[in-house]
Protein: Alcohol dehydrogenase
Amino acid sequence: MKAISVIPGDPDSLRLADFKEPRAEEGSVLVEALAVGLCATDREVIDGGHGEAPEGHRELVLGHENLGRVREAPAESGLEPGDLVVGIVRSPDPEPCAACAAGEFDMCLNGGYREHGIMAMDGFARQLWRAEPDELVRLDPELEPVGVLLEPATVIAKAWEQIEEIGRRAFFEPKVAAVTGAGPVGLLAAYFGIRRGLEVHVFDLEEGVKADLVRDLGGIFHTETLPESGLEPDVLIECTGVPSVVLHAVSAAGRNSITCLAGVSDGGEEVPVDVGALNKEMVLGNAVVFGTVNANRRHYLQAVEAFTGGNTAWLRRLITRTVPLSDWRKAFEPQEDDIKVVIDFSAG
Ligand code: BGC
Structure:
C-alpha cells in the first residue's frame, strides 16, 4: 500500500513509499482513501516545525483532511461497505484528562492528545486506513465532491458554536461579521456566517478568485485593512495568524463584540501595541477575544449539517486543484490562485 510520509523534524524527508497495511489495532473499520486535502499545518509538519511520529516509529504518515469509503465494517458498527466517511482527526490522550474523558478532546487540558497525520498517529494519506466507528462520520453520497472539505469546516463549526455560546452571556443580536483571510478556513467562516443571515465582510490582500468566491456567496470583499474600512463588526473571525492582522482583529472590535482567533502564528515577530488603549477599548466595550483549535464529534456533525442541502456548488469551487496520487509531489508545489489542493487517492 502506498502512503505519503515524513520524518518529523527532517524537512527533506517527504516521500511516497510502500507501507504495511494498517494494523487491526488501529480500528475495526477498514477504509479506502478517496482524497486528502492539504493545509498550512501539513506544510509545518513537512518543514519540520511541527508533528511527531507514532511511538516507536521514525516516520509519520501525513494527512488529516480526508475522505474515504468503507471497505469492511463490523455488523454492529452502523456502517456498511461503500459508505462515505470522514475520519476524526484528534483522539483523546491515552490516559484522558477530564475534558477528553467528557468527549471534548478538542479542549484537551494536558496536551496529551494525538492527531492523525500531525501528532503521534499516522494520517490519512495512505491507500487504506482504519478507525473505530465512533472516530468516523458518515456522509450522504451527494456530499462526495465536497466531503474532503469537512475537516476544515469542523474547525469553523466549532468557532461559530463557541461564538454563539459566548454570545449567550448577555443580549447579543449580531448583524455584521468580519473575517480576516480568504484562504479555505476564512472562506468557510464566511460560508457559515452567510448561513446565519449575517452581513459578512472578508478581508484579504488582492482581488482574484477568492474575491469572486466571497461575492458569489453574498459577502463583501475588502482589499483595505479592517481599521481602514472603519467597520465595527459584532463578530470577528481571524484566520491568518499574521501578527499585524491579529492586532487589527483584536482592536477593531465593536461594542459587545466577540473576536475568535483561529489562525496559528509562528511567533518571533514583534508588533508594537498600546496595551493600555487596547485594554480600555476592550473593557469599556465588553469585548471578548478567544482562541479555538480542532473540533470534536459534535462539530463534525454540525459541519455535516451545514454542508447537507447547502451551497455545495460554491463549496466545490474551494477545491482549485486535484492531483492524482501518481503525481503527488505536484500537490506540494504551491501555485498562484491555489485555494484548496487535494490529492486524489481514488485513481491510485
Ligand atoms: C487541524 C486541526 C488541528 C490543528 C493543530 C489544523 O490544521 O485542522 O484539526 O488540531 O491543525 O494541529
Remarks:
- Residues 232 and 253 are 6 Å apart (CA to CA).
- The pocket of beta-D-glucopyranose is lined by residues 39, 41, 64, 89-90, 115, 118, 151, 155, 293-294 (CB under 6 Å).
- The first strand starts at residue 2 and ends at 6.
- The mean pLDDT is 97.
